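A student in our group prepared the protein record below, which I am reviewing. I have pasted the whole thing underneath without changing anything:
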Amino acid sequence: MYVHCQDWDSAQRIAEAHDPASVPDVLVGQARVAFESKEFGKAETFLLRAERPELAVKFYKDSGHWEDALRLTQEYLPHKLQLIQDEYESYLASTSGGGEDMLTPAKTWEANGDYSRAIDAYLKMTVMQTTDYALLEEVWYKALELALKFVPMKAANVGTTVAERLAEISRFESAGEAYLSIERYKESIDMFVAGDKWDRARAVAREHAPQFEQRVEDEYVDSLKKRGKARSWPVWTLLQDWTCWPVGVSGQSACRPLKTRDDRC
């Protein structure tokens, strides 16, 4: 009777005095009313007192509060975390959800110290979910950061995936840094060249892959020619195997071939 009338204090007092086994039922009843009133914190407290965390997770899912559902699952039902993660991803797919909403599972895995799953979850974010390229760059780099720091056996594959994706969205400089982090120097140089980051390309070649130094210079010259700027170089600029002095009063530049590459100004 007290439950039917929602006289919860009386219902709980009677249950505790005469039927202790029914106390959880009273708490669940209070939780249902609290959830319907959107008093989620209070409802959660009732269900945890009733030792029914799985019901709290269900209520949170039904009300669209997936972050709370994942939080409770991680804390009280860790053996079901993968299941709830999968359900959440299916929910996002069915509702065309995307963007930062998709990061919730990844952040949960990361907070739980399951870095391999966190990496996989971060990499699930693609251009199919969002066209916010800045967000994609940040998320993919997060996956690479975790791989390099915590799951080194995945670093090469993750780095390659991240670099390729960044190149696809024309984030060439970031792609170059991603390749560099996994010691793929040629690809790193290629990305810096594609992004017109010539100083960075030269630095990588000089420090890690000197066999590509001349190629970088040749491609730099080609890029200037294609842009019609080869004739407007600053003075003292190297042109392949020739060195030139500034243009004089006569309008003629003085040039001579270099004897060796180390003979450059």
Summary: Confidence is low (pLDDT under 50) at residues 1-5, 231-265.
